[in-house]
């Protein structure tokens, strides 16, 4: 097991499914609340951590949005992102596509410029300090009206050079993708890449809708696809990436325990699955913790671990030359291991 963990830590990885607001550690939450004079339900970091016992996605989101309320000025978003990128570097993440939720902040009177500039300044610093490349993906909150998403897209246009793509997140149940057809069409017209959360708590039909109605190029979570074998076959045939977050899925009761997860079944059926951390502060682990949890639950050998890491780069919004570069880094890191 020690040898397997060493392999996981040594592997270069791409992180494609991480919500920057979900990396807010309790210590920083408490400090920013005090700095900004904001009342939150917790007095100490330990008290906050004890509240991270979720029964479903909505129970998590209630705490998630309360935590995000402490983020007020550009320096807060910078500090939040800087802390995540430092942890990502320690986890050997070489490339990250970072989600952020502007509506969570603009609803509180925080300008989108404040959010984008704070996050981006930390990303630029990480590129210089760690050689860690990033892209930003702006997500629309599906529990809010689609018209609000359209307005958010309009507000984002001055930052088109900084924001690479758009996504769809928040509470999935009773909020189907097709309600957001207009904003995704407009986003595509503006040249944004498009991804969407689907098939986490929602049904497999939501994955079809994200693909066919929204034109999503990648599906975040997508684990409910296994309820629909034609969908699994479609995903495998067209190599549509699924960015899977195993610890999150167990924490939110999508699966009762890691051994019940379907990620390796999907892998064996040829689906382009990869491992990510989602909201690591709340779900008990950053990207290496997710790899280790899956490797332990399924007693993975070197081949499967390495292929999952390669899939993360194959699924990224980077050109073939950059993919080859990162895949070469994995080959270099594992050259001394016999992989069958």
Structural class: alpha/beta
The average pLDDT value, as a whole number, equals: 95
As residue ranges, the low-confidence spans are none
Query: Which CATH architecture is right?
Result: Alpha-Beta Barrel
Residues in helices, as a percent range: 40-55%
Q: N-to-C terminal Cα separation, in Å?
A: 18 Å
**What is the molecular shape?**
globular
CATH class: Alpha Beta
Report Rg. Answer: 19 Å
Number of helices: 17
Please write the string of helix (H) and strand (E) elements. Answer: HEHHHHEHHEHEHEHEHEHHEHHHH
- Counted up, domains total 1
Q: How would a crystallographer describe the biggest sheet? A: 8 strands, parallel
Instruction: Count all strands and give the number.
Output: 8
Q: Give the neighbour order of strands across the main sheet.
A: 1-2-3-4-5-6-7-8
Assembly state of the chains shown? single chain
CATH superfamily: Metal-dependent hydrolases
> How much strand content do the residues show?
5-15%
> CATH topology, which one?
TIM Barrel
Description:
This protein is of the alpha/beta class. The chain has one domain: TIM Barrel, CATH 3.20.20. The protein is 51% helix and 14% strand. It contains 17 helices and eight strands. The chain has helices at 2-10, 26-36, 45-50, 57-68, 74-90, 102-106, 112-130, 146-156, 181-189, 204-212, 229-238, 246-251, 263-268, 280-283, 287-298, 302-314, 320-333, and strands spanning 13-19, 93-100, 133-141, 163-169, 193-198, 218-221, 242-244, 273-275. The chain has an eight-stranded parallel β-sheet. Helix 11 links the parallel strand 6 and strand 7 (242-244). The chain starts with a helix and ends in a 7-residue tail after the last helix. The mean pLDDT is 95.
């Amino acid at each position: 097991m020690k040898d397997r963990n060493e392999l996981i830590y040594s592997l270069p990885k791409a992180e494609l499914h991480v919500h920057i607001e979900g990396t807010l550690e309790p210590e920083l939450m408490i400090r920013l609340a005090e700095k900004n004079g904001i009342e939150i339900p917790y007095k100490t970091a330990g008290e906050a951590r004890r509240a991270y016992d979720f029964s479903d996605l909505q129970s998590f989101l209630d705490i998630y949005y309360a935590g995000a309320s402490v983020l007020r000025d550009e320096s807060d978003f910078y500090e939040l992102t800087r802390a995540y990128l430092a942890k990502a570097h320690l986890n050997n993440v070489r490339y990250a596509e970072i989600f952020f939720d502007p509506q969570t902040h603009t609803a509180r009177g925080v300008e989108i410029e404040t959010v984008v500039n704070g996050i981006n300044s930390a990303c630029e610093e990480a590129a210089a300090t760690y050689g860690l490349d990033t892209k930003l993906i702006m997500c629309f909150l599906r529990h809010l009206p689609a018209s609000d998403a359209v307005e958010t897209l309009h507000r984002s246009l001055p930052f088109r050079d900084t924001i690479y793509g758009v996504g769809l997140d928040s509470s999935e149940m009773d909020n189907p993708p097709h309600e957001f057809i207009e904003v995704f069409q407009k986003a595509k017209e503006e040249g944004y890449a498009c991804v969407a959360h689907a098939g986490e708590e929602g049904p497999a039909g939501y994955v079809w809708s994200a693909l066919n109605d929204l034109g999503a190029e990648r599906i975040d979570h997508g684990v409910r696809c296994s309820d629909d074998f034609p969908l699994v076959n479609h995903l495998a045939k067209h190599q549509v990436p699924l960015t899977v977050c195993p610890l999150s899925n167990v924490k939110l009761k999508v699966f009762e325990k890691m051994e019940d997860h379907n990620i390796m079944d999907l892998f064996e059926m040829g689906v382009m699955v990869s491992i990510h951390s989602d909201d690591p502060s709340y779900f008990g682990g950053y990207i290496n913790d997710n790899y280790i949890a899956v490797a332990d639950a399924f007693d993975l050998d070197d081949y499967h671990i390495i292929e999952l890491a390669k899939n993360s780069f194959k699924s990224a919004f980077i050109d073939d030359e950059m993919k080859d570069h990162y895949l070469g880094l994995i080959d270099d890191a594992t050259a001394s291991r016999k992989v069958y």
